[in-house]
Amino acid sequence: MRMQFWRKAVEDIYCDNPPHQPVAVALWRAVKRHNLTKMWFTKIIDEREKNLDDRAYRNIQELEAYAENTQSALLYLTLEMLGVRDIHADHAASHIGKAHGIVTCLRATPYHSARRKVVLPMDICMLHGVSQEDFIRGKQEKNVRDVIYDIASQAHIHLEHARSFRKKVPAKAYPAFYCTVALDAYLYNIRKVDFNIFHPSLQKRSTLLPLYLYIRSWKKTY
Which of 30, 53, 136, 180 has its Cα between 20 and 30 A from that of 221? Predict the structure, then answer.
C-alpha cells in the first residue's frame, strides 16, 4: 500500500497536484524549483517494490542493479538539485551509488542475521562454501570473512572508478558525493577487524566523521 501511495504521489506531483502530506509537498516544491527528472523517482519506487521481502541477491550484479536504481538514482537527483547535468558526474554517481548500496548491505548483515535473514549475494557465498545459516549463527571462520572481503572489495573498486575521472567532474558536483566519507570509514574499519562482519566496533558511530567530512570538503575532493 505504501508503494502504491508514493507511486500515485509522484504522478500527482508532476501534475501539480501533490497530496496533502509534508514530504510530498516538499518534493513537489523541489521538483518545481529544480526541474527534477521523474524517471529517478519511479526507478526508486519500482526497485523498492521488487525488494520488499528482503530476499537474498542471487549475485553481486543483482545487488549492484538494486543500488543503481536506488542509491545512484538519489545521487542523480541530488546532482540535478545542485544544477549539475554532466556525463562525468553521472558516471561518478553511478559508481558511488553502487558502492553505497554494497556497504549498506554489509552494514545491515548483523541486523538481518539476528532476524534469521541473509541478503548477501548467493553466488559469492556459494563460491566460499558459506551457507545462510553460517551468518545466522554469527560464525567468524575464514571462509565467512572471505565472503565479506569479496563484497567489500567490490565496493572499493566502485569508489576507485568514481575517483579515476575526478578531474573531469565539475567541482560543484562534489557535495553530492561526500557520502564517500562514511563509505571509506566503514571499509577501513572492516579491514581493520579482518572482515569480521560481526565485530562490535563496526556497530559504533564514528565521532570523527564530521571532521573527515570537513577535511574532504576543504580539500575540494571526494
Answer: 30
43 is written with which cell numbers? Answer: 526507478
- Its sign, for the CA torsion 64, 114, 143, 196, is positive
220: left (phi over 0), alpha (psi -120 to 50) or beta: left
Distance CA 73, CA 176 (A): 12
- CA 174 to chain CA centroid, Å, is 17
Which three cell numbers mark 66? 538494486
Q: Which whole number is the average pLDDT over 36-63?
A: 93
If we measure between CA atoms, which residue out of 3, 2, 5, 27 comes closest to residue 14? 27
CB neighbour list of residue 136: distance below 8 Å, 6 or more residues apart: 113, 116, 118
User: Could you tell me if 128 and 120 are in contact, meaning their C-beta atoms sit under 8 angstroms apart?
Assistant: no
Cβ 117 vs Cβ 95: under 8 Å = no
Q: What is the chain's Cα-based Rg? A: 19
Residues contacting 42, CB < 8 A, separation 6+:
7, 10
Residue 167, phi then psi, degrees to nearest 5: -65, -20
160-184: pLDDT as tens digits = 999 999 999 999 999 999 999 999 9
Please, which residues have CB within 8 angstroms of residue 2's CB and are 6 or more apart in sequence? none
Closest CA to 94 of 164, 23, 144, 15: 164
- What's the N-to-C CA distance of the chain in angstroms? 38
Q: pLDDT at residue 81 above 70? A: yes
Q: Which residue in 112, 110, 116, 77 sits closest to 93, CA to CA? A: 77
